[in-house]
Amino acid sequence: MGRVAYGVALIVLTTATACGSGGGSKPDARSPAPSGTAASASARTAVSWPTYHGSNDRAGYAAGFPAPRTLADAWTARLDGAVYGQPVVVGGMAYVGTENDTVYALDLATGRQAWKRHLGTPVPQSALPCGNIDPLGITGTPAYDATTRTVFVAAETTGAHHTLVALNAADGRVRFTRGLDVAAGRDRSTEQQRGALTVAGGRVYVPFGGLDGDCGNYVGYVAASRTDGTGSVAAYAVPTSRMGGIWAPSGPAVDASGDVYVAVGNGASLGGAYDGSDSVLRLSPDLSRRLSYFAPKNWGAENSEDQDLGSTGPLLLPGGRVLIAGKTGDIYLLDARDLGGIGGQRASLPGCVSFGGMARSGSSAFLPCENGLQRVDVSSGGTLRRVWTARADIKGSPVVGGGAVWTLDTGAGVLHALSQSDGRSIASRHVGTVTRFASPTLAGSLVLVPTMAGVTAISVR
């Protein structure tokens, strides 16, 4: 049975790459944006959520989104596998990847399938040394490139091959593929692509960490391919002997100058010489250099207890600041241009063990804390102040729009709209079974929620 499955995966991916060399075929000519219903045509000019939390700073803010008064079911799309990443929305279409290695384009107005592309056979958990996703296919949130009108996904297929796939947004045709297993001397079956992809400056960035359980010989890294499929795949690997995963669901953030910010998990070193783990890194756009870094003063002790910063991704704030929170409960405010080195934060605030992706509106940040989602305000002088904490069961990765913070009770599968000012629940709606790190997408007057069965769309009236 394993040999048959491997053959299927190989045929699909070989078909996609048969025209080229060096890991990918030449991309085809740019195609027109997808067409859709009249409602989709109207949404086309107003709705854009092309990446995780809508923008490369990972703000998760939707301007012009309606205030929540009544929530109603709009449509449900049952797909061929669980959806772990956010749906991305461009041109009246929502693009979604599943753990069955299939990408769908869904009409935003109706949820009807415009096209789908199956990319290979996902890896069953039984074929991996550890992990908690079964099967393992497309996990990270896709990213859309407006210049080439391409949807990018990272797929894991039988044999634990990790592949960047570039799809024509109009019809799902494969434009090119690139192999992403570029960490030399590592066991690719122990690596996992979980963080969101990011498109910036003509490159698409793909982060890698390990499987749940931190088993085997892996090291965290970020790979980058040109969005036109040319050139070699660049990579930056964390300079630790093992682990140091870059796995936060929000993926890399990118600032206006093109510098790349990532959060790194626990590494092998428990003291002595610093090994680059348990950190926030600022990398050059070509990934050739680490420009600056931050690590907590007690990074060695945090490594020894798996209490690291890698559980959330960096949130870029106005005024050249960065917010990060991790497993210890400490929130750190950093200077974006000089992250501060070891113990060099500008401010800190205890009380938020955080997993997932943060969001912001103005100077207010919203953090997915284990004791309940929190609003933390950042002053112009660089101080942090906690404003409110939601109920403990409401702790999903948030987004912001219409004066509300949209988040999930991931245990019960309930979408909540919380008042941005005081955190009370304004409205709620059951959406189905979701993953721990699920985060909604705000599109027009719809909230799209990734579920274990596909996508649920909730109408805001």
Give a brief description:
The protein is mainly beta and 461 residues long. It has helices spanning 2-17, 38-44, 299-304, and strands at 48-49, 71-78, 88-90, 93-97, 102-107, 113-118, 143-145, 150-157, 161-168, 174-179, 191-192, 198-200, 203-210, 221-226, 234-237, 253-254, 260-264, 279-283, 290-295, 315-317, 321-325, 330-335, 341-342, 347-350, 359-361, 364-367, 374-378, 384-389, 399-401, 404-409, 414-419, 425-430, 441-443, 446-450, 454-460.
Provide key terms for this protein.
mainly beta, single chain, 461 residues, 37% strand, 3 helices, globular, five-stranded antiparallel beta sheet, Lipocalin, disordered N terminus
Overview of this protein structure:
- The chain has 461 residues and is mostly beta strands.
- It has a domain at 66-82 and 360-461: Beta Barrel (Lipocalin).
- 6% of the residues lie in helices and 37% in strands.
- It contains three helices and 35 strands.
- The chain has helices spanning 2-17, 38-44, 299-304, and strands at residues 48-49, 71-78, 88-90, 93-97, 102-107, 113-118, 143-145, 150-157, 161-168, 174-179, 191-192, 198-200, 203-210, 221-226, 234-237, 253-254, 260-264, 279-283, 290-295, 315-317, 321-325, 330-335, 341-342, 347-350, 359-361, 364-367, 374-378, 384-389, 399-401, 404-409, 414-419, 425-430, 441-443, 446-450, 454-460.
- The strands form eight sheets. A five-stranded antiparallel beta sheet has the order 1-3-4-5-6, with no helix packed on it.
- Strand 3 (88-90) and strand 4 form a beta hairpin.
- The radius of gyration is 20 Å and the shape is globular.
- The N and C termini lie far apart (50 Å).
- 58% of the residues are buried.
